[in-house]
Automatic annotation (TrEMBL), chains B, C:
<dbReference type="InterPro" id="IPR029061">
    <property type="entry name" value="THDP-binding"/>
</dbReference>
<dbReference type="InterPro" id="IPR005475">
    <property type="entry name" value="Transketolase-like_Pyr-bd"/>
</dbReference>
<dbReference type="GO" id="GO:0016491">
    <property type="term" value="F:oxidoreductase activity"/>
</dbReference>
<keyword id="KW-0560">Oxidoreductase</keyword>
<dbReference type="Pfam" id="PF02780">
    <property type="entry name" value="Transketolase_C"/>
</dbReference>
<feature type="domain" description="Transketolase-like pyrimidine-binding">
    <location>
        <begin position="4"/>
        <end position="179"/>
    </location>
</feature>
<dbReference type="Pfam" id="PF02779">
    <property type="entry name" value="Transket_pyr"/>
</dbReference>
<dbReference type="GO" id="GO:0000287">
    <property type="term" value="F:magnesium ion binding"/>
</dbReference>
<protein>
    <submittedName>
        <fullName>Transketolase, pyridine binding domain protein</fullName>
    </submittedName>
</protein>
<keyword id="KW-0786">Thiamine pyrophosphate</keyword>
<dbReference type="InterPro" id="IPR033248">
    <property type="entry name" value="Transketolase_C"/>
</dbReference>
<dbReference type="InterPro" id="IPR009014">
    <property type="entry name" value="Transketo_C/PFOR_II"/>
</dbReference>
Length: 371, 324, 324, 371
């Protein structure tokens, strides 16, 4: 029997050069069509990232967290998910969020400061973002425990996925999530995205050993996958989600690299050499799949040109969407707080609107968005 | 039901709520077979099974964090924090997650989570077992904060808390856990946590909640002997405050004293004093006085009587109020 | 030193303290090579080495918990919490450990730990990056709670905080980080965190701290145009409060308004109102008014101007005060 | 080379029957004298426990956490410690505390509610108790990091020991302590005392796998020792502390059993069978060492009788000490809070003493104790 947790090599099915390789543990079972879909998803994610960064530079967004280089595992996850599966991820899984149907508008609104997590998480299966690093895997475990309790009771039990970073792995909450998942066998997959950095700190500041091994100490299998290989990620995630649906938690460490800055406020030149980044550039997830698909004739130049055109349209749409975003009117901080906020808050709400109406040039309560 | 203790009233409320709605779950440390260290969850595990009465790992952040996840999946979790002081390891999940979820999702996703916290001192306990942390929660938007002082309210407030579509922190007074009283299971037909005039009076009002309701009643009784007709109001809801009842009471009595075991500085009395000072300017005969625990840590148990407000201190405050 | 920003003044204070005492350490997320996300710790790693400028794992409880241990070993750790909202995962270590150690050990073991927290809004940031959590710490005994509003105080208060034998939480106003001013490195010869009359006035007083000092000065200036001579007091210390200065100011001006970015309910203004109501009964011409953030969560950044108190709201409160 | 982390058997050098056994990894290196000292220490600890429980029954103490059955690892730790080592332990390491020189008076005062952690932790090397479960290992790691920074600089670097329970292992803080220790190679030993229970919850509610393995996920060696075998505990602790002094963290799981109630407020009959407790009674740490020492003639009946007499004196002394304890005067809550508490607290202090002076029968500020 093959040891699924063999630490020597991350699972890889597609080399950086775009060649298929065998892995004794995993095989790609999807059809060629889904390979093409993965490429499209990654390209769309990257284009969204390019637009987001540009919008931030032009002052349209307050902040943007680049995802460039991290499209691979996100495409793999998207390919492996069932429609009823539920995902709790981070601010850097924008490509995954798009794939799950979160609208660019809702994501842009968040980074623009025009809203918070406006999207419908029940419909998209993508939970709101928690910017307190490491706090959401516990929600995922609770959700998964709820799934296991089977209250919904319709259809096959969905899996729950918690995606978090290498830095987040140090938080007490993330480790408690592993404790709870292990102790009660929650149908959950932990996906630790090791992109090498938590802002300026290399992953070695968090752990002296590979992070997939963290799971072992909790009695949960852990496995490492090449996070820039969308095929391997899809195959491993497919296995992991299946295992979770059958009632066992599992951890997947996706080994990738944050090619850009932590956010648009960050200057990586202060703390890391370009050398490492250059090395990782040779392992780009999009390049490798594109090369592979071209070599196999599954896509060709005209197809890519059509995709470019499609993405140009998408980019234009993203920019237009951003310009048209309406700020959340201030009264929503009152209206969205509690179903029954009480009289004192009602008075404050009135006072607030009264004040604003007297301040020249103040935010006039805008149109309702997102709810 | 007649002659139930606060513990039994809470237990009964849980039994009823779990029987009425299969989505109601109980989770916490030792809430299962043991029935909780105070036996509030006694018999639930037998009645509803280990699936719905969850003995969790020893981790408060995990308890609250997974309760959030369970609520997202459609359940109504009732989490127990074993003692007041142990809520702090889970404080981030309360402040940054539980309290914010509805706002963060633009009103889409509320979290019907109840956190039960046995609180207060006077039971001779060790460090961290006699705290009154309610002010931390009152300062946090997005939470309902309740406290019960008698079996009837224990039952009613817990049923209301479980029915509430938003998070509720219920502070249960350990020192009154074994006080007995009647429980009408239908509960009063009032908005959740409306304040209650426990003893009407004309000359001054004591605003209080939880364990200090008894202390204030004792003080009011003693004051009656001195010819002072003192009203006692059990706030029951600390967030939001039932300002209509509180204002009406202040208007009638013109002298207000707030009494609590929470510390003085930025304890609940600070907010009441600030609001009444402003809203009742010129209509009171004395400043709002506060009788509270000192601004220190809770002392070793054998010294707690010198720390907790008692009837004497309340009477002294009444004297001071009448001296204006 | 002339023309330093608040960031540079803090940085200089750290450089000096570390040079003067090898026991002073800096720890936190990204405080090393990066110099902190706000560059407050810039150059320290180069000057004092990785041993004394510690890039910690991403875990706030761990940062504060290990700072406690370092203090027990004789060091004077200065911990950075990257943004206000991130202090809550470490809140238990602050409330139940850091603040209690001296009491728990009967006075034997104090903990000279400084926790620096960039706080407040107005910088267009994402959720959890614009919080004003100071009230939670004011309600916690065993802590000194300070806030600086200008480069001079930033330097002075941080030096004093590091010299203090007890824990200090220093709130640094992000919105004022790049404000420039003179810094006399010897600092005023005053007890730590004495309040400061930033602008004297006779007709009313604005009590404030941190980012709102600037807002209050603007309001006072505007009020001067209307013939009102308004005093502005920077509290600088929120725990303990410099009641002598505050009382004297209230006595002189007879009208007091407290202004802060912390939320209204149980924000610092509640305590000031409650104390002044009692201590100055009959001596004020109006109730203590509060201008604070609403009792809600912080809004999305583009709406923050409608959430944060501004000079208009302060002026409106002045009008209301004068209307009594 | 022997695998020191061999999971098949906890390290054992002395069987429950009192016979020495070989372990391929560890040997007992102490002299016979220290064996006798260990027996005395354990007997003293147990006697203290018996007295404490009795004092609680008689209303002299508010609470008592029984340690019976857990004297073995505590004796082993005491035997292995160097004088400069520092210990952060729990409320159930009373036997260890005594061995380290904490006075019975100070421990009794805590459970009586007459004081908190009154003892001099710098002199005894025993940190104050933190009753927030799981909060103190971070202090231990910080202390150890301080040691490593070498500010003291005199003599060989001491080791730091963090003792905590199986229940505590689930707390985020304990896991963060492992993260920090691993990431910065703190000279610290984690000793997880697995006594089978966290109040009513069996250890299986915390973890599906043995707790020494938790360490592996953090990159820290973990090893399991028979916690009722004082020799094995001493040998393993000696190794672990030495390793820590040399700069590497390590975790030791001491497998033992809580023979009594969680505390005197607890009723274990509600949640566990006597059967398991009876099994563990056959593995008593005191019995086995006493049998062994008798068999080898290192102690004899008269020696044991003399010890009984000594312990009777000790017991009488404990009872007397308890009766003579003076409560901490209330003003200490003000005086011990801060070096400079400010005027407002001074006013409250005066108000408090004023109030007490008017209340008939109130606590008159007592005599100063413990500081
Ligand atoms: C509790 C908390 N502490 C600190 C931060 C500031 N912060 C934001 S992202 C980040 C690094 C996260 O690293 P990682 O988990 O590896 O995710 P990545 O950014 O690499 O995707 C930090 C420290 C935060 N948001 N929340
Ligand atoms: C933060 C916190 N949560 C809960 C408790 C209540 N409590 C005290 S001891 C205990 C069980 C501890 O179990 P373990 O760590 O195994 O130690 P043991 O009692 O077995 O020695 C619990 C839940 C507490 N003191 N602190
Ligand atoms: Mg990362
Ligand atoms: Mg245990």
């Amino acid at each position: 029997m093959v040891d699924i947790e063999d630490p020597t090599q991350p699972v890889r099915l597609l080399t950086p050069e775009g060649e298929l390789v065998e892995d004794p543990r995993f095989r790609w079972r999807g059809g060629d069509g889904s390979l093409v879909e993965m490429l499209r998803g990654m390209r769309r994610g990257r284009r969204f990232d390019v637009e987001g960064a540009a919008l931030q530079r032009h002052g349209e967004l307050g902040l943007w967290p680049p995802l460039v280089g991290q499209e691979g595992y996100q495409a793999g996850i998207a390919a492996a998910l069932n429609p009823a599966d539920m995902v709790f991820a981070t601010y850097r899984e924008q490509s995954l969020a798009l794939a799950m149907g979160v609208s660019p508008a809702d994501i842009l609104a968040l980074w623009r400061g025009a809203g918070l997590s406006r999207w419908d998480s029940a419909a998209t299966r993508m939970a709101p973002y928690s910017l307190i690093i490491g706090s959401h895997p516990l929600h995922a475990v609770g959700y998964a425990l709820g799934v296991a309790l089977g209250r919904a009771g319709d259809g096959p039990a969905p899996a729950t996925l918690a995606v978090y970073g290498d830095g987040a792995s140090s938080q007490g909450d993330v480790n408690e999530a592993l404790v709870f998942a292990a102790a009660r066998r929650a149908p959950v997959v932990f996906c630790c995205v090791n992109n090498g950095w938590a802002i300026s700190e290399p992953v070695t500041r968090q752990s002296p050993i590979p992070l997939y091994q963290r799971a072992h100490g909790f009695g949960i299998p852990g496995i490492r996958v090449d996070g820039n290989d969308p095929l391997a990620c899809a195959a491993v995630m497919d296995w992991a989600l299946g295992r979770a649906r059958a009632g066992s938690p599992v951890l997947v460490e996706a080994l990738t690299y944050r090619m850009g800055a932590h956010t648009t406020s960050d200057d990586p030149g202060r703390y890391r050499s370009d050398e490492l980044t250059r090395q990782w550039a040779g392992r780009d997830p999009i390049e490798r799949l594109q090369t592979h698909l071209l070599a196999r004739g599954l896509v060709d130049r005209p197809w890519l040109e059509a995709l470019d055109a499609e993405l140009d349209d998408f980019g234009a749409e993203v920019r237009r969407t951003c310009r048209e975003l309406v700020d959340t009117p201030i009264e929503r901080v009152f209206d969205d707080l509690l179903v029954e906020p009480g009289a004192h808050l009602a008075e404050q709400r009135a006072e607030c609107l009264d004040w604003l109406s007297t301040v020249p040039g103040s935010t006039v309560p805008g149109e309702e968005v997102g709810a | 039901m007649s002659g139930l203790t606060v513990v039994k009233a809470l237990n009964r409320a849980l039994h009823e709520a779990m029987a009425a709605d299969p989505g109601v779950l109980v989770l916490g440390e030792d809430v299962g077979v043991l029935g909780g260290v105070f036996r509030v969850t006694e018999g639930l595990s037998e009645a509803f099974g280990e699936q719905r009465v969850i003995d969790t790992p020893l981790a408060e952040s995990g308890i609250i964090g997974t309760a959030i996840g369970l609520a997202l999946r459609g359940f109504r979790p009732v989490a127990e924090i074993q003692f007041d002081g142990f809520v702090f390891p889970g404080f981030d999940q309360v402040v940054n997650q539980l309290a914010r979820y509805r706002s963060r999702t633009h009103g889409r996703q509320g979290l019907p989570v109840v956190i039960r916290i046995p609180f207060g001192g006077g039971i001779g306990a060790a460090e961290h077992h006699s705290e009154s942390p309610e002010a931390y929660f009152m300062h946090t938007p997005g939470l309902h904060v309740l406290s019960c002082a008698c079996p009837q309210d224990a039952h009613w407030l817990l049923r209301q808390a479980i029915a509430c579509p938003d998070p509720v922190i219920l502070f249960e007074p350990k020192a009154r856990y074994y006080a007995k009283g009647e429980v009408d299971e239908s509960g009063p037909d009032l908005p959740m946590g409306s304040a209650r005039i426990v003893r009407p009076g004309r000359d001054a009002a004591l605003l209080t909640y939880g364990p200090m309701v008894r202390t204030c009643l004792d003080a009011a009784q003693a004051a009656a002997g001195e010819g002072r007709d003192v009203e006692v109001v059990d706030l029951r809801s600390l967030a939001p405050l039932d300002m209509a009842t509180i204002r009406a009471c202040a208007e009638r009595t013109r002298r207000v004293i707030v009494v609590h075991e929470a510390r003085l500085t930025l304890g609940p009395g600070a907010e009441l004093a600030a609001r009444l000072d402003e809203e009742m300017w010129g209509a009171l005969d004395a400043p709002v006085l506060r009788v509270a625990a000192w601004d220190t840590h809770y002392p070793p148990a054998r010294t707690e009587r010198a720390y907790l407000p008692d009837a004497e201190r309340v009477l002294d405050a009444l004297d001071r109020s009448f001296a204006y």
